[in-house]
Amino acid sequence: MSARVLSQIWAAIFILLGIVAFSLRYQARHEVQEGLQDSLWRLSYDIKFEVDSPEAEVRVGLPDQDSSAAIIEVEEKSHINLDAEDYTSPLNKNRELILTTQLTGNYQVGAEFEIRLKPRNAWDEQHQVSGLSSTARSRFLRSDATIDTAGANVREVMQQIPRGELTDSELVQQLFDFCSQSFKPGSSADGFDAVGYALANHQATPLGRVRTLVTLCRAYRIPARLVTGFELRQSDSAKPHVWAEVFYGHHWVPFDPTYGHARQMPYNFLPIRHDGEEIVRGEGIKDLSAKYTILRLPPPANVLQAEVRRPSQVLDLTRLPVEMHEIMSLMLLLPLGALITAIFRNLIGMRTLGTFAPALLAMSFIYAELATSLVILIAVLTAGYFGRIMLDRLHLLMVPRSSIVLTMIIMLIVFGVSLIDYADPISGVRAVLLPLVILTTLIERYFVTTEEDGMAFAMQLVVGTAVVAACCYLILGWKQIGALLLIYPELHFFTIAAFIWIGRYSGYRLVELWRFRDMVK
Amino acid sequence: MDNNSNRFWAWPDELKRRGILGINQRNLDIILESNPRAFYPRVDNKLLTKEICQANGIQVPETYFIIKEHSECHRFLDLVEDRTEFVVKPSSGAAGRGIVVVAGRLGNNFFTSSGRLIEWTDLRHHLSTIISGLYSLGGQADSVIVERRIVSHPLLKSIAVEGTPDIRVILYRGVPVMAMIRLPTKMSGGRANLHQGAIAAAIELNTGRTYGGVCRDRAISMHPDTNFPIAGIELPNWKDVLEGAMKLSDALEMGYVGIDFVIDADTGPVVLEANARPGLAIQLAHREGIVPRLKYIDSIPMADRTGENRWDVIESIATKSSDFWRI
Hints:
- The structure holds two protein chains of two kinds.
- By secondary structure, chain A is α+β, with helices and mostly antiparallel strands.
- Among the domains of chain A are: 3-39; 317-487, no CATH class.
- Chain A is built from 15 helices and 15 strands.
- Chain A is elongated, with a radius of gyration of 35 Å.
- Chain B has two domains: 12-59 and 153-325, ATP-grasp fold, B domain (D-amino Acid Aminotransferase, Chain A, domain 1); 63-148, Dna Ligase, domain 1 (2-Layer Sandwich).
- Chain B is 29% helix and 23% strand.
- Chain B has helices at residues 12-17, 23-34, 41-44, 46-55, 76-80, 120-132, 154-157, 238-252, 281-286, 291-299, 310-319, and strands at 63-67, 86-90, 100-106, 109-112, 117-119, 144-147, 166-172, 175-183, 199-203, 210-215, 218-219, 256-264, 268-275.
- The longest helix of chain B is centred in the C-terminal third of the chain and has 15 residues, at 238-252.
- Classes of the chains: A alpha+beta, B alpha+beta.
- The A-B interface holds A 3, 346, 349, 395, 397-399, 448, 452-454, 457, 504-509, 512-521 and B 3-5, 7-12, 14-15, 18, 20, 22-25, 28-29, 32, 70, 95, 97-98, 121-122, 124-125, 128-129, 132-135, 189, 193, 195-196, 217-219, 280, 283-284, 287-289.
């Protein structure tokens, strides 16, 4: 088999290995991460009601399935004389269980949900809605018995907070501040649930505050609605919580005047019903009572056993002590440095002093702090250069001569570090790791090149070295790449495949397109 | 008139159509395929190359003596006797690195061909740096060869400045495919080193006449120092150069090799060194790519491109029109 075909086969094998290893680890990590970060909860409904007439209907709100809470199991324990139907409202996307009774009597309905709660990620944007349909818009602007936008008290508030040039966002913030700060707590027995009552007495229940906020928003012609849900925390008699959602900037934006959450609800708030104040509501029934229980469930067994020692853990570098992470990811970055070097040499055709010296220099710069490294590098190169000129006259043999340069560089660095420490005790000590031997050989090589091939050629190499080192620095200094490689070191199977490809690349180097430009006419 | 294009680059397929060999293709398709790794010492170690030449009756500069150890350096003055002209070179050096040409002497003070003074202490230091391996490939300990200085053939004096022109013949499967002469200039400091500014001129394989010309990768037709046209010079002893090149290539058993000659005023062509990774500038000097010639050699049956039959192949390469070499 020819080398070319064999190389192609090996490159394909490495790519395949990379894909398999990467996806296996991704899957395993995903499972453990879910087990550790996510929490499992059980939400139970216990609903009782009495029916006098046969055709009664009860609507039970079900948890929303969104990115931060996934329902993994639903168990419904319905009464035998009930027709149950799942229904999702097109307007609000509410999930409901519609129960229709056949007979009169007492009913008891139970439902259980197992919910996996995920901490919300920073990039977990709210669902963007392109715009509200005219139906939806009029629905969320309308005035009704509990949301009376035409009340006298509402107009009074609108005079206090003039719309003026305020953006929707600014206006809603002012309304939110108003609703969360200007009311004293009140009880629903006194009627402080009602908007007019609350505004007149400056006293409101949590529901009263939310109703007021929604009423005011609608009065300013900004669509708004009430949301009922649960805060997931352990309780045998959980109370539903009500907050508001206001539509502007293509989003439904949550505001909770009771707890003060604005623009984002904590991830453990589980919405059940949008545009509604109750979880369960019914027609033609009486004595409706609903009891809600929330229970935290244990994580899966394999997660609890994650710390058991297993040989396969050797493959997991993230298990190593944190202080080793940086040096490990730095080592894992080295092959990428070599890849950049190979690209520059074999595809572009740029020449450097020493093959891997630029990449290693860049790595040391990444490990230390840039400014300190630069100062030390310049000092080292200057000292090395003049030291070498001085030594030239002594006619020493090569190894001892380089060793003197090395010793001088080390002395300079230790006192340099001491000086930096004296001036600023925190920074710079890590710059010691600048690869001294590399610098020493670079200086020696520079001298030989200057003598043998002329200053111009030597400078060409110096520039090449600087360019490759700068490129390596920019790409490898990207923190996420190091972190990613530490988690997925098998990505280097792709690096090897890339090396094989470059190793078999017999096309022109970029500089040859320039070098041989006179050959085409 | 120099016929340089004003473009900044050529497209890869344009170069490919002109048959230009790039470094990657040279390394992968030619050198890796044709030159067995085990035979590299035959070209990398000049002492070995010399031995092979002598065993095959190919002329090389006469070796005066060899220094292998640091402790022998002090004997240099005894060994060099009262010679006033000689060349000091590292046995495993590449691209002419570490070579000192002594052209004059005043007691223990030596002078290079360009007139630079080298004191004995300097020379001794230079000897020990060579032995330390500063110029050798891979930095291995090396030995010093002290050999006869070649005096360039008078015919070449007019086009060489401050140094000795050398001739490179590139052979593929034992057949000479391209040849050029490298002329030192003031810019190159008297060295026949192309990337320091020496000139290269192509040589017609059958006649040994120069044509083309390149300096620092740009086409030229006049020597920049002497204003002498560099085309149309008929090289002396050309057939001997080709003969020696073919003999050495056979002995080296390398499929792709560059052999460097100097034409001595007295003894004619002598081999300076052989190179298993010859550069690509020879194509610039010819204003022509080498790939079609290599393919042409491959297309000829083995029996027709060995032994004395090679002269016919050389004749046929040289007389093909430039259109023939277009891909």
